[in-house]
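Self-study notes.
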Amino acid sequence: MAERTPRRPRRRLIAAAALATGVLTGVAACSPGPSGGSATSAKTSGPVATDPAKAGKVTLTVWDQNTDPGANASTEALNKAFMAKYPNVTIKRVSRSFADLKTTLKLALSSANPPDVVQANQGYPDMGAFVKAQLLQPVDRYAKAYGWDTAFPSQLLDLNRFSPDGKTWETGNLYGVSQTGEIIGVYYNKAKLKSLGLPPPSTLGGFETALAKAKASGLQPLSYGDADKSPGIHVFGVVQALAAGKPEVRKLVFDEGDAKWTDSGTLKAATTLRRWADKGYLGSGFNGKSKDQAVASFAQGKSPFLVEGTWQSAVLAPKMKENVGFTALSPATGQPPLTQGGEGLAWSVTSKSKHPDVAAAYIDFLVNKNGMKVAASHGNLPALPPADYKPTPGSVDADILTGWKAVSEKDGLLPYLDYTTPTFYDTLTAAVQELTAGHLTPKAFTSRLQSDYSSFQNSR
C-alpha cells in the first residue's frame, strides 16, 4: 500500500449559528503545476480593478447549471441588472443541467476559448480535477478585495479550497464562492397526508411507516426518477446520514480515520433503499424517469412524498401553493435532524479568462447582499440569509428556512457523497441504479464503493 499524504483534521462543515441566523462574523505551500511552472500565474497577483465600467468593451462568457426555475430566474435577473449597471459588459450565458455540466465543462475549460466564469462542483471529481489541470485560478485576492473572506464563514470558504496540485481538499487556495445554501429533505403533500391520517414525518422510521401506509392505500408512495443519476445519490445520502450517523459519513467523505464504506451504517442504508425498491415505494421504471418527471408527478398529486433538494421549492410552490411542506428527518425521536447539504456550486474564475477582474466583479454581484436578496426573492435559499429574509408563514420556503436552521444549528449538515474521490460520482451513481434495480446486493454495493475509496487512498 502506498503511503498516504497526511491530511489536517477537518473543522465543522458549516458555521451553523452564523448561517442559520444570517449573522456573520482558514494554506499549503505551492507546488509546481504539470508544466513545471508556478501554479499561480501573473493574472492571480497584483492590484484588483473593481470597476467593470473602466474595463472597456467586454464579453463575459459564463457557464452555469442553474436550470431549475428559481435558480434560472434569479440568474437571469442578476445578469440583466449587471449589464444595465455596466453597459460595456455583455454576458454570454451558457446554461447546462448538472449532469450535462459534469460531462462538458472540462472540455470547455480545456478549449482554445474557455469561458470566463463557471460553476464548479466542490470536491475531488470536479474542482480538484480542474485545479490539478490549472483550469481555474485562485481568487484569494478577490476575496480580500470584495470582503468574501470575512462575509463567508471559513467553513464555507474551505469547501472551495484546494492545494495547488488538486490533491488536498479544504486547504490551500480559494477557487470560488457560492451564492446558495441547500439541504436535501422530504417534500410532502399536506392533503395526501391528511387523507392518510399521517403527520409530516420527522424520523427515518416514521417516514418508512408512512411509505408503507401510502402503498397499502393504493398510492404511489414516493415520486422518484433516477435517469439523471443525482436523485439516487441524494436519496441514498439522506438514508445513509440517518442510518450511519454524522461521524461515520464525515470520516468517509473527508478521508479521516479508519471508516469503510462496508461498515454497518452504510450497509444498513443500502439495505433500506433496496427494501424500498423491492416493496414498490420507488414505483416502476424509475431508472428511466428523469428528475423533472418525478418532481412534476409529485406536484400533480400522484404521490405524497418527494425526496429532493431545497432548490425545488421554486418549482413546487407555484403549482402546489400552501399544499406542499418540507422537512428534514432525524435518526430517532428527540434527536436533531441530519441530512446532506451545504452550499451550491462555487462560482469560479477560469485560468485563461481574458477579463479576470470583470469576472470577479460579476461573481461579487451574484454573492453580495443584493445578490442574496434576489436569489431569495426567486425561491432560492441564500448561502448567507439576509437578516430581513422572512418567508411567508406556512409556506414551503418558511419550512425550508426552519429546516435549514434546525440542521445547521445542531451541526447536522453532512457533505455530499460524490465529493469523496475523483471517480466517486460515477461509481456511486451507477451503483445506486444497480442496487435499486436489483442487480447489486447491498453488500456488493458497499464493496464497490469501498473499492473506489481504497484505490483513491492507495494513490495518495
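Second protein, same conventions, sequence then structure:
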Amino acid sequence: MSEQSLPRIKPENWYRTTTLNDGITLIDEPWIKPFFRCNLWHVRGSERDLLVDFGLGAVPLRRHVALLADRDIVGVASHTHFDHIGAASEFDCCHVHSAEAHILAEPDNARTLADMFVNDEMFDALPPEPYAHCGYRIVAPAKIMQLEDGDMIDLGNRQFEVIHTPGHSPGGIALWESASETLISGDLIYDGPLIEDTWHSNMSDYAKSMRRLNALPVRVVHGGHFPSFSGKRLNIMIDDWLRHHEL
C-alpha cells in the first residue's frame, strides 16, 4: 500500500494512552507498526511529572494527550533516534545524555535515522494532511539540559537515577527507580528484535550496559518498544543475548 492509498487519521485519534500500575501511563501511536512504534512513558509525581521519549512528532503531542496538558513535566529523551525525539520541541526543556546533546540540538534526518526508516513500511495509517514522508523534519528543542550517569530526576515523591547505557547509541540512558524496582530501559533492551547496527552502535559498550542492567534488582521493565516485562524476563533476555553474541 502506497503513501497515497494509506488512510489518514484525525489528530485527536492519533495517540493512545494505557494506564499501568505505579502511576505510570503508556502513550503510543497505534497507527505505526509495532516494530517501529515508540513507547512514551509518563510517570505521575507529587510535584512534577516525568515523560520519557516523545514519539514521531508528526501530530502535536501535548495538544492531543490531555495527560500532558497542564502539569509541570520533566521531558527526557532516552536517546536521539527520530522516533524518540519527534515532539521534544513541544516542551520547555528536553533532557538528554551529554554524548548525544549535539544531535538533539541539530536533529537532521541522517543522524536520527529518519532517512532510513520514515516510509510506508512504518505505517498502517498516516497522520493527517499535510504530513508527507518527504517533508518529515524534527525541530530542535529551545532548551537542552545535559544528563550524566548518576544524575537524579526528582518528581517530589519519586526519584529516578540516570544510568548511562551506551551500545544502541552513545548517549542511550535508562532510568532506575530503586524504591519501586522499576526500570525504564530505552532502546538498549526491550522484548522484541533489538537494533544493534546503527551508525553509532558499539557492541562492546552494548555488552557492558547489558551486564550493568542485569545486576539491578528489577521488578518490572518498561522498554522503548513492545510490551513491558518482568525483571526475571530481563535477566533471561540479557543472559541469552550475551551468550548468543559471545560477549
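Instructor comment on the second fold: The helical segments are 61-64, 82-85, 101-105, 114-117, 203-214, 231-245.
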